[in-house]
Amino acid sequence: MIMGSRYLLRSGSARPSPYELEVTPESAGWRYSSLKIISLEPEGSHSFDTGSDEVIVLPLSGAVAVEVGGTHCELDGRASVFTGPTDLAYVGTGETVDLRSATGGRFALCGARAQSAHPLRYVAASQVPVEVRGAGQSSRQVRNFGTPDALEAAKIIACEVITPAGNWSSYPAHKHDEASETESELEEIYYFEIAAGPGGQPGFGFMRTSSSPGHEIEVLEEVHDRDTVLVPYGWHGPCVAAPGFDMYYLNVMAGPGAERVWKISDHPDQAWVRSTWEAQSVDPRVLPQTVQEA
């Protein structure tokens, strides 16, 4: 059995590269999902070729201009991942992308190996569907910027999750490692940001992945700001935000299925938890700001 360290990429552990984080299908030992994060100084720029990947340019902090084949779009971005959804740009395969940031920032390049190309698309922050999932201490906010209902694409499925301090998410534990009528086969990346404490204390949380039928894996990791966990298979969850520290994670998924869809199986020992949510109230900290102000 391979233990968890293979699947945990600590912040700052990336090999020398323009990227803070660089997960490719080749480096992960799988076939489809990828994620790169680039930091740009004020007036900084970066160019890359999408090659055989479709890519979503997602600001984590700051604004960026994106130019593809003579088409230009401005992403207003955001101050941080905890301030709300962001606008984004989808870029298909076989394109050259130029990024330029007047004020600097950090930008995620969420990718999936794909056989077909889709046209460049800009999505405004106001167009990103935001939902509340779970209830009670399982309440979390999900921003579905790159899910099948929100974005036309070939393979990629991506979303952001905000888990308030002390809450659990990716719960019940679930899997999507085989193709069936009720489940998709998808590789998944979890990239974390953990909010600091009131005095700047570094935050932390925990993530669990365990063996599913035919797949042996054992991961139980304390995760810190800008750590990444790879989920090639297995029951994954929960993600637990330590009291005092809000947790963010970015999920990027893709797989071999002809249909681009997210279907999961809940862990049989935990599936009953969903039925309790109807009797519980939602944690108000996960509600979109417009709902809180209403």
Quick overview:
With 294 residues, the chain is mainly β. The protein is built from two helices and 24 strands.
- Taking all residues together, what is the mean pLDDT? 95
CATH fold assignment: Jelly Rolls
Number of discrete domains: 1
Beta strand %: over 45%
- Number of helical segments with 4 or more residues: 2
| Radius of gyration, CA atoms, in whole angstroms | 18 Å
Stretches with pLDDT under 50, minimum 5 residues: none
The first-level CATH class name: Mainly Beta
Helix content: under 10%
CATH architecture: Sandwich
Structural class: mainly beta
Strand/helix succession = EEHEEEEEEEEEEEEEEEEEEEEEEH
Question: Can you say what the CATH homologous superfamily is?
Answer: Jelly Rolls
Q: Major sheet, described briefly?
A: 9 strands, antiparallel
End-to-end CA span: 51 Å
Let me know the number of strands.
Answer: 24
